[in-house]
Design brief:
Length: 132
């Protein structure tokens, strides 16, 4: 005959369930940390590319204008400075999280609207403390 084992007790089942829940929570935490690190690295690479691209495009445009008008280094230097300035503005938008909307003005309005929605409402008139 087949010998049957005793069924597990309620404490055994709850201990196994607790161990599985702890393992799942730890796995989820590790995945979230990896995802956060990848997002940070992505932002870092994007900032680097923005800076390099702005300077290269500005320098290229300046060099092209200099060769057309035979005014070597004047326009190239000016456009390198303009490209760097544009790159820095783009980096500031990235760091302020204003780059998701179309246009900087719209992004600023959206961010201010969210801040206004999160602010506590002003108290109605007549509810102020009159003891002052």
């Amino acid at each position: 005959m087949v010998e049957t084992d005793k069924p597990p007790t309620l404490e055994d089942v709850s201990a196994r369930l607790k161990a599985l829940q702890d393992a799942a929570a730890e796995k989820k935490t590790i995945e979230q940390e990896k995802q956060g690190s990848a997002q940070i690295a992505g932002v870092g690479f994007r900032i680097g590319i923005e800076l390099i691209a702005g300077v290269l495009v500005g320098g290229g445009l300046g060099y092209f204008i200099d060769t057309q008008f035979d005014t070597k280094p004047i326009f190239m230097l000016a456009f390198i400075v303009l490209g760097f300035t544009a790159s820095m503005l783009s980096v500031l938008r990235i760091l302020k999280n204003l780059d998701h909307a179309v246009g900087l003005g719209r992004a600023i309005r959206d961010k201010e609207g969210k801040a206004r929605d999160l602010a506590p409402p002003p108290s109605p008139k007549g509810w102020e403390d009159e003891d002052d």
